[in-house]
Specification:
Layout (H helix, E strand, L loop, with lengths): L1 E2 L9 H7 L9 H18 L6 E6 L2 H12 L6 E5 L2 H12 L4 E5 L8 H11 L9 E5 L1 E2 L4 E2 L2 H11 L2 E5 L11 H4 L3 E5 L10 E6 L1 H9 L9 H8 L10 H16 L2 H19 L5 E3 L8 E6 L5 H12 L1 E2 L1 E2 L9 E4 L6 H15 L6
Parallel strand pairs: 1-13, 3-4, 3-5, 5-8, 8-9
Antiparallel strand pairs: 2-10, 6-7, 9-10, 11-12, 12-15, 14-15
Helix pairs in contact: 1-10, 2-10, 3-4, 10-11, 11-13, 12-13
Bound molecules: pyridoxal-5'-phosphate (PLP).
The site of pyridoxal-5'-phosphate has 13 residues, from helix 3.
C-alpha cells in the first residue's frame, strides 16, 4: 500500500528500525537525555520564544488540545474559537465540557478566515472599548477541509486585543512556516503521526512564558493531564507516568535527522514540492480543489464527474493498493483528501495519478 492519508503517514527508515527493537526501560539517565534533546529540538523547530518549555503527552493530538485548554483556561476566561470544520468543532466541544465561556467564528466549508470575521466577532461582544475575549483558539490548518488560516491576521488581532493565542498546529507543523515567537503564539500543539512521521500516540505541547505562568496558576480537575506535573518531570527529562517510550525514541531519531538535514525549512520545502507536483499533475482531471487557502500538508478535492468521493477512496484502496483520506459526515461523498506528509516521492504521486485516471475513467483528448 502507498499511504497518502493525513496520518498515520509513512515513516522513514530510521523510525521504522527503532520500531523493530525491544522497548527499553526508561527511568534512566540515557532516556532522560533523549527527552531533554526532544524538548530542545521541539522548541527550536517551533520558533518558541526564550523561556518556553515543551512537554510530551502520551495521547493523540486531541489529548494535547484538551490538556492545553484545561490547564490554561478557566471559567473566568472568554475564548474565541475558529470553527471551520471538525477540528474547530472539537475545540468548541472541549471548551463546552470544561465550562470555558466561548464564542465561535463559524466558517463555511472551504472558506478562509477574513479580517471581517475577526472584527465582526469582536464587535458583537465588545463592551466599553476593551476586548471581551481573553483567549483565541485555532487549528492553523483545519485538516478536515484543507483550509490553512492566515496566522499573520490572527496574530495581529491577538496582539491588538491582548489575547492568549493557542494554536493547534498538528497537521501544519513541518509542512508550512510557523514562528511562535514572531506570531506571539502562546501554545503550539503537534502530534507524532502527522509530519513527524512516527506512529500515533504522542503529542507535544510547546508553551510560551505567558502560557507557563497560567499553567502554574491554574488547577485542572485532572491527574493525567496536569501540565504542572509534566513540566516538573520534564525538567529532568522524565514524565510522571509511563510514556510511549518507543514512540518517543522514534521522535528523537526523526527530530535529529531533520536537524541534520536542513531543519524545518528543508521539511517545509519538501512538503511544498510534493504538493505542487501533485497539484500540477491533476490539473486536467475532473477534480476541483475545494479550499480557498491551501496548506502544503493536504490537497482537498471534489470529483466533478459525478462520482462519489468515498467510492473513489474505496476503489483506490481495493483495486490499486493506495490509501487517500476520505471525509466524513456531509462531505463523505463530496470530498476526499490527498496528503503530502511523511515519506513520499514524486514516483509515489505518479502512481496515485495513474490510479486516479483509471478510477475516474479519464481519457486524454489529444
Ligand atoms: C490530526 C489532527 C488532530 C489530532 O487528532 P488525533 O486523532 O487526536 O491525533 C487535531 N487537529 C488537527 C488539525 C489535526 O489534523
Amino acid at each position: 500500500m502507498i499511504n497518502f492519508t493525513v496520518g498515520p503517514v509513512q515513516s522513514p527508515g530510521e523510525v521504522l528500525a527503532i520500531g523493530a527493537e525491544q522497548v527499553p526501560y526508561f527511568r534512566t539517565a540515557e532516556f532522560s537525555s533523549v527527552m531533554l534533546e526532544n524538548e530542545r529540538l521541539m522548541l527550536k523547530f517551533a520558533g518558541a520564544p526564550e523561556g518556553s518549555r515543551a512537554v510530551f503527552i502520551t495521547g493523540s493530538g486531541t489529548a494535547s488540545m484538551e490538556a492545553a485548554a484545561m490547564n490554561l483556561l478557566t471559567p473566568e476566561d472568554r475564548a474565541l474559537v475558529v470553527n471551520g470544520g471538525s477540528f474547530g468543532a472539537r475545540f468548541c466541544k472541549i471548551c463546552e465540557i470544561h465550562g470555558i465561556p466561548h464564542d465561535e467564528i463559524k466558517l463555511e466549508t472551504g472558506k478562509a478566515l477574513t479580517i471581517d470575521d475577526l472584527s465582526n466577532a469582536e464587535t458583537r461582544r465588545r463592551g466599553e472599548g476593551k476586548s471581551a475575549y481573553s483567549a483565541f483558539l485555532v487549528n492553523k490548518h483545519e485538516t478536515s477541509t484543507g483550509v490553512h488560516y492566515d496566522m499573520r491576521l490572527i496574530s495581529d488581532f491577538c496582539k491588538e486585543n491582548d489575547l492568549l493565542l493557542i494554536v493547534d498546529n498538528i497537521s501544519s507543523f513541518l509542512c508550512d512556516d510557523f514562528d511562535m515567537a514572531a506570531l506571539g503564539a502562546d501554545v503550539m500543539i503537534t502530534g507524532s503521526q502527522k509530519a513527524l512521521a512516527c506512529p500515533p500516540g504522542v503529542s507535544v505541547i510547546v508553551l510560551s512564558p505567558r502560557a507557563l505562568e497560567r499553567v502554574t496558576r491554574n488547577d485542572p480537575k485532572c491527574l493525567y493531564f496536569d501540565l504542572k506535573d509534566a513540566l516538573a518531570n520534564q525538567v529532568r527529562g522524565q514524565t510522571p507516568f509511563t510514556p510511549a517510550v518507543g514512540t518517543l525514541l522514534q521522535i528523537h531519531a526523526r527530530l535529529k535527522a531533520i536537524d541534520a538535514a536542513g531543519g524545518v525549512a528543508a521539511e517545509v520545502a519538501k512538503a511544498k514540492r510534493m504538493a505542487v507536483y501533485f497539484r500540477s499533475k491533476i490539473a486536467d482531471l475532473p477534480l476541483e480543489i475545494v479550499s480557498e487557502r491551501l496548506s502544503n500538508a493536504v490537497t482537498p478535492l471534489h470529483p466533478t464527474n459525478g462520482m462519489s468521493a468515498f467510492d473513489i477512496f474505496l476503489k483506490l484502496k481495493n483495486e490499486h493498493g493506495i490509501w487517500i483520506c476520505p471525509n466524513g459526515g456531509d462531505l463523505k461523498d463530496k470530498v476526499f483528501r490527498v496528503g503530502h506528509m511523511g515519506c513520499l516521492t514524486e514516483a509515489d504521486y505518479d502512481s496515485l495519478v495513474n490510479a486516479l485516471k483509471a478510477v475516474l475513467g479519464y481519457v486524454r483528448n489529444e
